Amino acid sequence: MTMSDSLPVAVDVMGGDFGPEIIVRGAIQACNKLQIKVLLVGDENLIRAEMAKNTIDRPEMVSIFNAPEFITMEDSPTKAIRSKANYSIKQAFQLVKEGQAQSVVSPGNTGAMLAAGLYVVGAIEGISRPAIATLIPRADESHPTVLVDSGANVQCHAEQFAHFAIMGKFYSQALFNLPEPRIGILSNGTESSKGNDLSRASAYILSNIKDLNFIGFVEGRHIPRDIADVVVCDGFVGNIVLKTMEGSVELVVDSIRRNVSESWRGKIGMYLAKPIFKKLFKEKLDPSSYGGAPLLGLNNIAIVCHGSSNEKAIFNAIRVANQLYKAEIISKMTKSLVKIESILDDVSYEDGMWDRASGKFDIKKKKSIVERS
Predict the structure, then answer these.
(1) Residue 201 three-state SS
(2) Pairing between strand 213-218 and 145-148?
(3) What was the pLDDT predicted at 357?
(4) pLDDT for 188-218, tens place per residue?
(5) CA gap 185, 204 in Å, rounded
(6) What is the distance between the alpha carbons of residues 91 and 8, in angstroms, rounded to a whole number?
(7) How far apart are the C-alpha atoms of 367 and 146, rounded to whole Å?
(8) pTM, rounded to two decimals
(9) Looking at residue 347, what is its pLDDT?
(10) pLDDT tens digits, one per residue of 67-119
(11) 131, 138, 170, 214: which has the highest count of C-beta atoms within 10 A?
(12) Cα 255 from Cα 259, distance rounded (Å)
């Protein structure tokens, strides 16, 4: 597909905390620097006013779809779908469904985006509910770890964990060009006897999927290390992990600032180390470097950004959306999910299954995790 006939990324400009200005600016940067077409969805008058403030190298690559209504934080996403026919995020998904756009990017309400996606385009066949995949930076220079689910599903069953693993696999492959991403289940220990009924049942299923590089249980401390490429958990645990790691980073930053200000030696040391800290906190630990998190499991590519996203985050979200579209990740997930249906049908849930399932784990792989930790 050439640039002239490629589909644009539909960008919801109405959902951010700071209004259309930041979103339009980030979209235009993606258009200018990456040569990606963008379709700006929102209040046309506001969009044109913001576009006039920016230089667009190729104006024909930026188009507008007028959708002046949007969902506020006070609105119920489900009710808004039915009452606001022309709200921006719903129209963005509709444009993808009609073949006028390739993917959706929005910094709006996550619940609204999920509800609109399910209502308009639906989920991949076999997926009961989409999941949020978040990139967790590592201590070394390797690619981030994919955490699935990080907040969409607070209560899960074993089949959903299998779906999360499949979706995380193809997401990791598309982003980092990994032939066989290592899949792990988050647990309270690496031994097969650890975990709860959910994690053990999930491990039993994943260990029986031949096309999946399942390495067993991993601990929370393994997430930012080169242990697993995809870590699977329910959204309740995943969101706590994510917020705890964010709080830990804030703790380190605030502690450094406080201690530096207390002595002239600290100030000199901080000045000398400034380039290192800039690289660490602005490139590796800055969420805007990754753009946003995909809602995996929908029938089209959808990237949800934080409401307070800056233009860098919007730029990177558009980049990732286009990358996933080119990798044909939706069709690959669909084909793979069909293959595991027979495995899921064979799994029974009577009492005592977990003890039998524990013997199915790959002990050699588990030993390698323990040795590396």
Answers:
(1) helix
(2) unpaired
(3) 46
(4) 988 888 888 899 999 998 988 888 999 999 9
(5) 11
(6) 14
(7) 22
(8) 0.80
(9) 52
(10) 987 776 666 666 666 665 678 888 999 999 999 999 999 987 888 888 889 98
(11) 131
(12) 6
